[in-house]
Amino acid sequence: MTEEVLRATTTIKASTENVFAVLADPAKHAAIDGTGWVCKPVDGDPLTRSGQIFRMGMFHKNHPDGNYEIGNRVESFDPPRAISWQPGYDATGSGELQFGGWIWRYDLTPAGPDETKVTLSYDWSAVGPEARKDISFPPFEFSRPRPPRPGCHYIFLT
Fold first, then answer.
1. Mean pLDDT (10-residue bins), the chain, 158 residues
2. Of 91, 104, 106, whose CA–CA distance to 139 is shortest?
3. Global confidence as pTM
4. How many helices and strands (H and E) does the chain possess?
5. Which pLDDT score, from 0 to 100, does residue 134 have?
6. What pLDDT does 75 receive?
7. How far apart are CA 129 and CA 90, in angstroms?
8. What does pLDDT average to over the chain?
9. How far are the Cα atoms of 12, 51, 108, 140 from residue 63, in angstroms, in the given order?
10. What local confidence, expressed as pLDDT, does residue 141 receive?
11. Per residue in 97-142, pLDDT tens?
């Protein structure tokens, strides 16, 4: 695959403000995660600005520990139009995050009264050679929606 940015677009029957509010609340991320890896927020704070770090509990069957934690740095915060974050990890145990270069981004566009066009982008283009030794692009299946894990709930926007 030569393209290193995946995009998916859908229209949701909710205002851009309501959709953005879900994206800015890490407690809601497990319910909207398409990879099935996100479990729960470690921090309880909503996202409010670029540069903010929020930590998430994760699970992946191929991760050495199974359960692990990542720290995400908010890259863009433009309510209610766009939000993005870059996952990072504490490789040394020092508490200092290292970032792999991939970014999750949501762009929101009004599509009518109480409808929002949502474009999710997964950008892999800034991933360096070290990460590419252990992780291939894309690191998840993207051809079909994933069923929710047990204990996860769908989010209904009104």
1. 76 95 88 73 90 80 68 94 90 81 91 92 77 57 46 39
2. 104
3. 0.79
4. 3, 8
5. 62
6. 96
7. 18
8. 78
9. 33, 27, 32, 13
10. 54
11. 888 788 889 999 999 889 999 998 888 877 767 666 665 555 555 4
Length of the chain, please?
A: 158
Which 3 state secondary structure label does DSSP give 110? Answer: strand
Least Cα distance to 33 among 70, 1, 3 occurs for 70
What residues have CB less than 8 Å from 30, skipping those under 6 apart? 38, 39, 40, 149, 152
Find the DSSP H helices in 27-156: 29-32, 129-134
Q: Which of 23, 67, 27, 69 is nearest to 44 (CA)?
A: 27
> Which stretches of the chain are assigned E, i.e. beta strand?
5-12, 38-41, 53-59, 67-78, 82-89, 98-99, 103-112, 115-123
C-alpha 127/C-alpha 99 separation (Å) is: 9
Tokens of 92: 């040394």
Query: Could you tell me which of 45, 108, 116, 39 has the C-alpha nearest to residue 78?
Result: 108
C-beta separation of 144 from 36 below 8 A: no
Q: Identity (one letter) of the amino acid at 91?
A: A
| SS3 state of residue 86 | strand
Q: Please list the residues that pair with 59 across neighbouring strands.
A: 67
- C-alpha to C-alpha distance for 81 and 60, rounded to whole angstroms: 30
